[in-house]
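Hi all, long-time lurker, first post. I run a small reading group and we've been trying to get comfortable going from sequence to structure in the token notation. Rather than ask abstract questions, I figured I'd post a concrete chain and ask someone more experienced to write out its structure so we can walk through it together at our next meeting. Sequence below, copied exactly:
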Amino acid sequence: MKNEISEQTLENRCPACKASISFNPTLGKWKCDYCGSEFTLEEMQKSEDNASTEKKNAKKDQVEDNYNNYISYHCESCGAEIIADESTSATFCVYCGNTAILQSKLSGKFSPDKIIPFKKDKEAAISAFKGLSKGRPLMPKGFNNTNNIEKIRGVYIPFWLYDLNVSGDVVMDAKTIEKWTIGDTHYTKTNTYKVTRGGEMDFLNIPVDGSSHFDNDIMNSIEPFNYDEMIPYNHAYLSGFYAEKYDQEGDSILKEASDRALNSARNVLKDDTRMYATKTIVSDTLVSNEKNKIYALLPVWMVNVKYNNKMHIFAMNGQTGEFIGNIPLDKGKTLLYTILIFAISMAICIAVSYFIFMGGQ
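-- Answer (accepted) --
Happy to help. Here is the structure in token form:
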């Protein structure tokens, strides 16, 4: 069943030649690929063309099947009909390359509070992938060949950033160990204590991925972001990139941020007992309270690699350049290294045994 409704799209046009213009992470400006002009955010905002495009409407259909909702809209540049997932808030026309920002996906409760613009470009992500072989002798030969890259795209991922306050106590079993020798006799004394530590701590900008489309382990691994560079949201920064809107409400995933804050607080209080040889937390009364949360878009380069008919997902922090992913192991190399390590270990054991034996003669 189709329901035809109106969808407003936002486009960014070059103030000089009116061509589609994208944000350039390396320059930190908008650069037109057609006339070569460069513009700051202030210049883009002053552009009458940029302001007028916010008022354009593009027709779209919303189609619902058994599993997903899709958005159909018409490209303002070439008139082609483009299909996007319902959570997509910025995409491209596959025919002319024009960026389409779906305004309804970025308005109301879905309007981001903050954004960290891309600082690393596509070439930086490709370079990071090519450099995977450094220090990884068991990686299959040719895995990091750029021909294996199936798709690479810059995506603004929706994150909830929480400010939390943690307070309470932890109770630990702790031990100190003393050793001394009198003559030929060695003594060890172990003292056991019940230790309590308490306090109150504030945690700022604890990030939790607000999209169910992205692997949480990958998103957590590319942290941290430098939140000092976070700025008020402006849709112009989406030019040339994809963007997702959150499909997980901030309250529904608050527990993930709370768990991270509580674990960090436990570690801080545990580290405050360095005078003890061992310490084990047996109970705590720690609680976390939300002080504030904001909705932010954070930059990530997603790199899909196809190798031996299997897809491998990599991600790069679009601000810091942190590059992570699961690298396959070459079975032949792994076997060879295992045999080599075993042979070296056996040789060392034989040599040590020989010297011990000879020393006893």
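A couple of things your group might point at:
Residues 2-111 form one domain.
The two ends are 93 Å apart (CA to CA).
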